[in-house]
Each structure stands twice: as structure tokens, then as C-alpha cells.
Amino acid sequence: xxxxxxxxxxxxxxxxxxxxxxxxxxxxxxxxxxxxxxxxxxxxxxxxxxxxxxxxxxxxxxxxxxxxxxxxxxxxxxxxxxxxxxxxxxxxxxxxxxxxxxxxxxxxxxxxxxxxxxxxxxxxxxxxxxxxxxxxxxxxxxxxxxxxxxxxxxxxxxxxxxxxxxxxxxxxxxxxxxxxxxxxxxxxxxxxxxxxxxxxxxxxxxxxxxxxxxxxxxxxxxxxxxxxxxxxxxxxxxxxxxxxxxxxxxxxxxxxxxxxxxxxxxxxxxxxxxxxxxxxxxx
Length: 283
What we know:
Elements: H1 2-6, E1 12-13, H2 18-31, E2 35-37, E3 53-55, H3 60-73, E4 78-83, H4 88-91, H5 93-96, E5 108-113, H6 121-130, E6 134-138, H7 141-153, E7 162-165, E8 184-186, H8 200-208, H9 228-249, H10 267-281
Helix pairs in contact: 9-10
């Protein structure tokens, strides 16, 4: 990160991994370099108001509230949460503490973890034996189709079963096998439908024509649906481009200040960072 900053950065986008993103955020905050991070932080760990970092991703609190509203709207009195990672219990804490609006009693929640490298079939068989009809699935999109196909095979994808899916990449999952199951499957849709089949190769060429080479897009064209993380990275880059153009038109854009990682930050770095951050927020 330090080597990148010392080369003279106007702003930094990413990385996605929380650990390396935290290092980048710390370095950018110290030297007042605008930083757009793309990962979803745990509850209460967002940047302070005066930070040089901000995000375009939905917060865990927002997603948790949206899922909570779905559970309430569907009047679930009991459900099973199927999740892959322990941090899901932090993100979904509000749902686990739900009370019935009619009786005031806690909503009954059964927790079933399926780690990413474990077989999901035994857990689904246990859910079927227990007679559970309401399932909240907090699993990666790449695993969701396998899970639903096996659930259908053992008879728990029917008109008497209800599913809420937390992944924001539900649009990338082939659900054609469940079209006639009459099950209630509810999820979220952030991307405009016409972008689902967007070809990253075409997008890369469009950016390349402007002299920009985004590393988050694949080098070869593909017809796989664009996932939300890639779309948000693309949005972040577009926002940064528009903000930079605005500052250039108003003659408020200067060369990135020279940064030395082991020296104190420069005041003029913060002046330009603030101007760029405000311009991004107004895009």
C-alpha cells in the first residue's frame, strides 16, 4: 500500500479482502488519500465522519433490517437459519431477537451451520425430518443452486415451504429447475435487469477506449451474469471518474501530492482529498 501511495495516487478503490482493505484504509486515512472500499464491514465498524474512506456497498445493518422486514412481512413464527460462517450471527442479530407482534413471544429460530467445505446434505435431511417449512439461507450464491436442488430432491421445495435468501447475487443462480415447484423463494435485486447479462469484455473495451483498465473485470468476454461486487466496483470507478471530471472543469484538481509513508501527512493532501470526496458524494 505504501509503495502505491508514494507513486502518487488520486484515490484508491478496494481491495475486497477485509484484512488488506483495513491496511489500505489506515494508510489512506493517515495520508488523506480518498479510499473507496468494497467489502462489507461488521456492525459498527464503518469509517468515522472525518475519514478519507467511504463505501458504495450496502451496510450489514441495512441488509439485516431488510431481511428482518421480510421475515415480519411473511409472519414467520419459526424458521431455520442455514449459514456458512459464524459472522452471519452478528450480521443477522436483529432477526435472531425477533418477537411475534401478536403474542410478544420470541420467534423460534433453529441454527444450522454448513461450513463452505462441508457436505450440506446431512443438514438438509435433518431439516426435512424436523418438518421445518421456513428457511433463511445465508450461503454464497455459488452454493445456492446445489442446496436448492438437493432440498427439492428430498421434498422440502414445495408450495408448503418458504425461503428467504440473503445473497445479493441471487440473479446469478439458475432457478429454472424450481419454476414449477410453487415454493415461495424471496431474495434481493440490486442490479438493473438489463445489466444481468452484461458482458465484462465489452465493458472493459469501453473503459479502455478512455485509457482506463479496470482490474476487476475479466480479460476475456463472458456471458455470465455480472455479480454485485463487480457492479459496485464499476459504479465506484464511474463515480470517481465523474468527480474527477467535475474538479477538472472547475480547475480544482491538482496533481496528487507526494506522500512518504514514514513522514507526517501534508495539509494540502487533505484539501484535495476533501474536494474529491465531496465531488464523489454529489455525483
